[in-house]
Amino acid sequence: MGDINIHIGEMLARNGRLYPDDTALVERVPGEGKRSVITWKDFDERANRFANGLISMGIKKGDKVMHLMNNSIDWLIAYFGIIRTGAWVVPLNFRFTSEDIKYCSDVAEEDIFIFGEEFTPRIEPIKKDLTTVKRFICVGENIPPYAESFKTVLSASKPTPPDVEITFKDPCGLYFTSGTTGKPKPILLTHLNMANASITECMHHFQRKDDVFILIPPLYHTGAKMHWFGSLIVGGAAVILKGVSPKWIFEAVSEEKGTIVWLLVPWAQDILVNLDRGELRLEDYNLSQWRLMHIGAQPVPPSLITHWRKYFPQMAYDTTYGLSEATGPNCVHLGIENTHKVGAIGRPGFNWETRIVDEDGRDVPKGATGELIVRGNGVMREYYKNPEATAKTLKEGWLYTGDMAREDEDGFIYIVDRKKDVIITGGENVFPVEVENFLHTHPAVKDVAAIGVPDERLGEIVAVVIDMVPGMVLTEEEIFQYSERLPKYKRPRKVFFGEVPRNPTGKIEKTKLRKKYIGMEQAFKVE
After folding, report:
1. Is pTM, for the whole model, over 0.85?
2. pLDDT tens across 295-307, in order?
């Protein structure tokens, strides 16, 4: 690995020195014919410019900078610029509402807030309540009067590296992921965590300088970005695809000579449906260099991979398991040589350890079910400002995932259930309490429970069981209409009417609901 302090910011700087004129990032806007390119030298210098601009605004090591943008080259310039100051980057889910943003701001207490112009309508209603924010920076052309232009900050700043010492022990980012309470939960990650993700990914998927990574999922998430870090460490290019359709994916792979694509299950299924219908034809595209397709973030049906390999028999496939607390994917991975084990999440990732334990933290016998725990350099530092939750999750260096698993005779791990009731739909986490609390505001709803129902395309969809107020009438269509105020991915797709069983302590007995309404335990979680 070389110098112990080769963190991801230094990886970028090294690429700028070694490969100054090579393509680092391509941004494609399908449907509009727009394509932007940036070299490693330009990427490095623009990140430096933004870092120096932030420092001139008073940002110093340990401060926080909130980051709310859609995927773009500028997203990554801002991200690397922030971490080069020694500040913590606080990337937010672009689906967050004004209320969510305000909650995260109260926790993070950021000093500067950078956002894309499209988020102005969400910022303005809460701007006066973001009391710790000293400066706003807007990316785009329509800059609100209270914000400064990202473009102006870059042009007014020097492209030389800031004089900030960064070590692996230093915090790097505060990533918000929802917890069982339904509120976004802050996970503090370090520069060691990020560097570990780069090394592990490169070891798993053998990324090389000539690989081209097609980057589709949201960058705010500890998912595809960490997979791309495996290309970052070797100077491989990435193509940011702003939009998803089978045709656009094939065009990007074909025209950009893509070699690695990370997909969600729905995207892979859409590709297969289009191929089956003849709406996509392999012979119309140059796909011969596409060497790896890997999937994460939700359950992967084995039948999907069997179907995929009929069209792409020579292409390598992998799946990875992870969680934000482990800096995203790869603490467990299947391995491209193990497609005969599809259905398992795999074995411990490079430089990771796993155990399966009982309630007392003792190893269970092979084949028995217990909680999966993991240990490695990707384990978060803590849940920020939540020592109680940290103590429950981190014990003697081990991260307790909350997922129930078993190990087969060959050492492959299978997730069989999970303690958490998170519904994973299309790779997005939906927390039942959020849906339940919303529907409790309907006057005809006496009680409500949200559960995940298996879905071939999305992994799971949200279903609700509603116990109506006696004497009142409510239809499925009325629930659908009422739920239109929720973000689309959180809206119920199925409605059942009946009693909501609760145990003596008042907790909803969701196992009973699943057995009654879907006849099985909730699907496992794969990252």
Report:
1. no
2. 876 667 787 888 8
Q: Between the CA of residue 408 and those of 74, 359, 371, 403, what are the distances in Å?
A: 45, 20, 15, 16
Q: CA 356 → CA 180, 344, 406, distances in Å? A: 22, 14, 7
Q: H-type helices in 109-174, by residue range?
A: 120-123, 150-155
Give the CB-side neighbour count of residue 72, counting CA atoms within 13 A: 17
Q: What are the tens digits of pLDDT across the range 498-509?
A: 998 875 445 678
**And the tokens for 68?**
């709310």
Number of separate helices (H) and strands (E) present in the chain: 15, 27
Joined tokens for residue 505: 């302590």
Read off the pLDDT of residues 180-221 as tens digits, 9 standing for 90 and up. Answer: 345 778 999 999 999 999 999 999 999 999 999 999 989 998
Domains by residue range for the chain, with CATH: 8-383 (3.40.50.12780), 425-517 (3.30.300.30)
| Residue 230: closest CA among 327, 325, 92, 348 | 327
Q: Please give the Cα distance from 185 to 100 (Å, whole number).
A: 11
Contact residues for 8 (Cβ-Cβ < 8 A; gap 6+): 80, 83, 172, 191, 194, 195, 198, 229, 232
Handedness of CA 326, 329, 331, 332 (dihedral sign): positive
Residue among 201, 131, 140, 453 nearest 350 (CA): 201
Whether the CB-CB separation of 486 and 435 falls below 8 Å is answered with: yes
Q: Measured between alpha carbons, how far is 121 from 114 in angstroms, rounded to an integer?
A: 14
- Size of the chain in residues: 527
**pLDDT of amino acid 157:** 97
